[in-house]
Here is the input.
Amino acid sequence: MNELTPVSGMDEEALEAAFQAKIEQEIRIEPKDWMPEKYRKSLVRQISQHAHSEYVGMLPEGNWLTRAPTLRRKAALLAKIQDEAGHSAYLYSACETLGTSREKTYDDLLAGVAKYSSIFNYPALTWADMGAIGYLVDGAAIVNQVALCRTSYGPYARAMVRICKEESFHQRQGYEILMKLAFGSEEQKEMAQDAVNRWWWPALMMFGPHDANMDTPNQSMIWKIKRVKNDDLRQKFVDMTVPQAEYLGLTLPDPELKWNEETGHYDFGEIDWDEFWSVVKGNGLCNRDRLADRQAAHDNGAWVREAANAHAEKQAKRKADAA
Here is the structure.
């Protein structure tokens, strides 16, 4: 037996030492492996929050589905929305491997107990927002999620591999929408610039607070659930995005944004953290609307769940009778 494998009869301290040794050896933790309860709860919180973000994230785009300017745009946007629904399904399934139920995690969302990414509490006002969301929001998500492909929990890491591949298409789709607008008429370029102005700072907020401001050492980093610090991910996103925006002829709304020869990175201004925490606490422009829409979808789908359960019970009875 591998000496890193926890076995029955080991005390709590020895189990945790063996568990951390597996983490250090880059051995993936699987659902049937022993894990500390705090590790399990941390994963449930993070993965469910991620699943909720994918689920709520369909709403800004769904608002523009019937108003997409061409059939091609409508088909591409519909495909993206379907992808996001699939991502939430993968992640809810990953949560279930940790001993919780999909119903419980979803009920926590509707009750306001569980959080989702604050970015989705901003309104999508024009068609250009579909480009800015794909370019900036999905671009930021990719930077964060690529690192999660190496997270220590196996089901989460494997789900992220597929999700990242699909998110890369979403980012390209958004960039292509902005490119069409930026290279179009003056009115179209103004629309693109306005969308970038409104989504730039919320996109930077997606990476979370400064690492130095954390109240406690980041246990997620020690467990390798999280692999890269918030500020490092944010810097990578800025460095990647600025040249792309310059190609489009669009200005990122930060007067302090400039290249730093000494560091080899772009310097940028400070985020409005008061706004960030206000949105997280439920005071964003769309917080209430987003949860109301998800509650309505849940209520309207009750008959589907009831029918599915009745069918499952009927099939189980048939098998039992046949036996």
Notes: The beta strands are 258-260, 265-267.
